[in-house]
Structures are given as structure tokens and as C-alpha cells.
Amino acid sequence: MTIVDLSDISIELFIAVMFFLLIIAPLVSLGILRLFQGKKKVGLGLIGSGVIGYFMFQLIVGLLV
Question: TM spans, by residue (predicted)?
């Protein structure tokens, strides 16, 4: 068993992962759930908002770097 050293992770990477885990992934997973429930309009809206959130995040990161 090895010990993982987390001190090499940059704050930008940490924020990117947290953004993905807290906003984009739940929107997409809820969208897929709604599609299986037969609510196509809501499901596609949630998936679309997750994709838009991803592209907005990429745009913001591109402007900051």
C-alpha cells in the first residue's frame, strides 16, 4: 500500500475537479435519469445545461490562462 502525496496538486486543478464533480456531473446524470423516466424535455435540458456549463468553464479557464 502506498501513500498518495496530494501536495503537488495545483489550486486550478482542484477547482476544475470540484467544478466538474459539483455541477457538470450531477446535471448530466440527472438528465439521463429524467430521460429514463420518460421526461425527454427536462432530461435534454439538464444534459444541455451541463454541456453549456462545461463550455463556459473552458472559456473562463482559457481567458485566465
Answer: 13-36, 43-64
